[in-house]
Amino acid sequence: MSPHSRKISGRKRLRELGIVIGRYKPGKLNAITDVPGVMVGHSTIISGRGGHGKTGPARTGVTAILPNGGNVYNERVVGGSFVLNGAGEMAGLTQVVEWGLLETPILLTNTLAVGTCSESLVNYMIENHPEIGRTEDVVIPLVGECDDSWLNDITARHVGYEHVLEALQSASSGPVSEGSVGGGTGMLTCDFKAGIGTSSRKLPEVMGGYTIGVLVMSNFGVMENLRVDGLPVGEILAPKYAAQRKRGHENYGSIIAVLATTAPLLPHQLTRLSKRVALGIGRTGSYAANGSGEIILAFSTANKVPRRSEKMVYRMKILLDKRMDALYEAAIEATEEAILNALCAADPMEGVNGNYAPALPLDELKDVFEQYRKLLPARHERSKAPGT
Fold this sequence. Notes:
By secondary structure, the protein is α+β, with helices and mostly antiparallel strands. The N and C termini lie far apart (42 Å). A hairpin with an 8-residue loop joins strand 10 and strand 11. Helix 5 packs across helix 6. Helix content is 24%, strand content 25%. The strands form four sheets. A six-stranded mixed beta sheet has the order 5-3-13-12-11-10. It has a five-stranded mixed beta sheet with strand order 1-2-6-7-4. Strands 8-9 form a two-stranded antiparallel sheet.
């Protein structure tokens, strides 16, 4: 399945429904790829029906994010992270925390495919950089996971090297496919089908003109908690969709969020920015349940740290901390919209053992907001961001 040509029949992004999150404008693509140099690719695996088995139903895949095109190994980017709740995993994150640098692509997949993706990414890196482990240090790949076992026969281990390679080789700087694609193929959010979602914000020039992009693999929450721009949409829809919701260990799941920015930030500043991504996750209804993992990785493309240099000192541009407030607000907005785009893009899906995930009903969502605006018109008369 071609990862970027896949069209979601009848589905729309949140803004196409007339629902606008926040006050800052998105970038041209309203995606993480609005940050120059960032590329995204998917490998989507959908096959089979029925129960568990060696070739049980596949509803899974891999999403690849290349922070600096194909050159992040030689020209590393500055990184930071924040773990809101740790019932999840991002392999390789410890080194990012220690060094404040990213030197490999980022892969997103299901929980039991982390090892396969790590090994496959190592193979890919060695093929492209044969000096690894010989004349240069080894690498520790970055692989984030969420549990897709409600729809995917996760123990059948469908993800292989060929899927990691497809995601990496198909990565582009253009529009990003959303919903049931790549690592998000088998994911749910608040009992509705979700998966991959993305959004961006472009700050006014007076605030630096920086771009922030967020991509999520969203897989958390229960229906009653879903909120859209502060409106309790989940409570409104729950009575109608109660019979279709996921049953058993309702709070399981996680979300991996990846933030990219052109702002020149140090690792501690990216960690602070990651914490605001967690606030954006909370706005959609997450309370970081016991069995849910909320893990955020952030990087800046403003400073490229060379792997090899004869110099003693590397000079970096640094944004002053007191100038970061606009970035904080933009990160929250982009995160909330990215999660909602994942929900809006995804089709309904039947998976292993006949388990079913309904799609978020877009017509009903739009009608709810139209009624809401009639009651509180001032609520949606957005004040302009300073400098716009």
